[in-house]
Design brief:
Shape: globular
Number of strands: 0
Mean pLDDT: 83
Helix content: over 70%
Low-confidence stretches: 85-96
Number of domains: 2
CATH architecture of the largest domain: Orthogonal Bundle
């Protein structure tokens, strides 16, 4: 099904726009969770979709578009992190949901900041596996493909990441 959608997107701007709309939020949230910076996440999201657009002809027939686009996002992120030497600051992120009251927004920001601090304490592979699953919306198989690991290894990484986060949140 993804292959047909991609082929149609290569010919039809509306289909391309729909493919973008279907995947932009998970890509953005994954990149935001990894960079901690709204502007960087927006820039990397744009770079990801530009690279995808340029390479739609390389999309494989049996591939998942979600996994494919997250792979591109991951490579853009790695390139970005190699270039960037400063630390990230989550204080500038704007994750406000328009449905939240001001008080709920403050609580959400505090929880987001606390979670970001805790995520930063995780082993890098655990954090990445969890972020690809939660923010990226990928299946275990798709995360395994992106990380070059077995599904069992990914399940173990995610399990241990959640276990660590729970333990630290209870402390």
């Amino acid at each position: 099904m993804d292959y047909q959608r991609v082929q149609q997107a290569r010919r039809d701007e509306d289909a391309l726009a729909q493919l973008y709309r279907d995947h932009v939020k998970p890509v953005y949230h994954y990149l935001l969770s990894r960079t901690g910076d709204q502007q960087d996440a927006e820039d990397l999201t744009t770079q990801t979709f530009m690279a995808a657009l340029e390479n739609l002809h390389q999309f494989k027939k049996d591939a998942s578009f979600a996994a494919w686009i997250m792979g591109i996002a991951r490579h853009k992120l790695i390139d970005h992190l190699r270039r960037k030497t400063s630390t990230v600051n989550l204080d500038d992120t704007k994750l406000q949901d328009d449905n939240l009251s001001p008080e709920e927004h403050v609580v959400h920001l505090l929880q987001t900041h606390e979670l970001a601090d805790l995520m930063g304490m995780l082993a890098p592979e655990r954090a990445e596996a969890l972020q690809l699953k939660v923010y990226g919306g990928l299946s275990t198989r798709e995360v395994a493909d992106r990380m070059g690991k077995s599904e069992g290894a990914v399940n173990n990484l995610v399990y241990r990441a959640i276990k660590d986060l729970r333990r630290w949140m209870n402390d």
